[in-house]
Amino acid sequence: MKVRDHATLETLRRLEKKEKDAWQAKRLRIIILAAQGFTAPSIAMILDLSRRDVQLWVERYNREGLHGLDDQRGGNRRNSLGNVRQKEDRDSLLLRAGYWYDRAHAKLTSGLERLKVEKRLEELAEVRQRRAADIHRLHPDKDAPQDLWNGLY
Questions:
Q1: Is 110's pLDDT higher than 80?
Q2: Where does residue 89 fall: left (phi above 0), alpha (psi -120 to 50 degrees), or beta otherwise?
């Protein structure tokens, strides 16, 4: 397969290494392998592409240079339907996560409040028993501590 000299092999390798877009890096890899003498079927097998895809990318590179490897699928990719759908899905997940967080937070809060109330009731019961025991010590001839407490209020 013939590859025109729009860029040196070293430049293509450097561009491939720096490229963040996986598809763009794969296109650069096609050109690198073709420039090294690999055939379209062998490149296709190496990169898990069709032979025709390999031929088309080499053809575009030969015709347009590095700009021929740019993604030309429909203009502004940021506003594509797929990206809008992904944003809606992400927003939906965040809303559902927020619902479950609020629900769990409410349960946790109510559980903590209940624990605080139970702890306070236990403290009050201890105070009641101590006071009743103190009153019984001061007045041993009176009734049992429980009866004394009930008589105070």
A1: no
A2: alpha
Kindly report the three-state secondary structure assignment for every residue of the chain: CCCCCCCCHHHHHHHHHHCCCHHHHHHHHHHHHHHCCCCHHHHHHHHCCCHHHHHHHHHHHHHHHHHHHCCCCCCCHHHCHHHHHHHHHHHHHHHHHHHHHHHHHHHHHHHHHHHHHHHHHHHHHHHHHHHHHHHHHHCCCCCCHHHHHHHHC
pTM, 2 dp: 0.49
d(CA 25, CA 37): 19
Characterize 77-89 residue by residue with b for buried, 16 or more Cβ atoms within 10 angstroms of its Cβ, and e for exposed.
eeeeeeeeeeeee
What span, in angstroms and rounded, lies between the C-alpha atoms of 15 and 12?
5
Handedness of CA 50, 51, 57, 59 (dihedral sign): negative
* Mean pLDDT in residue range 131-136: 77
Question: Burial of 128 by CB count in 10 Å (0-12 exposed, 13-18 middle, 19+ buried)?
Answer: middle
Token digits of residue 51: 């032979």
CA distances from 93 to 2, 78, 79, 89, 101 (A): 50, 20, 20, 6, 12
